[in-house]
Task: structure prediction
Amino acid sequence: MDKVILKDIANNNDLYKPTVMAVISGLLPLCFLLIQKTADLKTRFHRVVSALIIILSGLVFWRLRIFGLNSEFQILSEYNTLYNLPATLDRSYLKFEVYLLMGFIVGTLIAILIFRDKSRPLMF
Result:
């Protein structure tokens, strides 16, 4: 695994990654507001649990991406290249922010399904 090197192939997106991560982090209150408007959060405990569901699902998706990349890095490091050059991988291929956003969306949907009013139909 030490033979795989991450490089910035196109180094023109220095502002892109921090901006996207800031926007995704800014979507957390929006996801929580969506849960409050659609679900029945009666107590502070329900609100804390719903926020934890969103954050933990985002972290789980992020961790699953790391797990998938580790298996890909393991496969890349097994190749024996000509002149023993290390395998390189573009950093833009990692896409951690996309997986974090998907985790937040899935966490929001899970929290809505858990805390929704069971007497009302699921579809409006």
User: Anything to note?
Assistant: The CA atoms of residues 9 and 103 lie 27 Å apart. The radius of gyration is 20 Å. Strands lie at 4-7, 87-90.
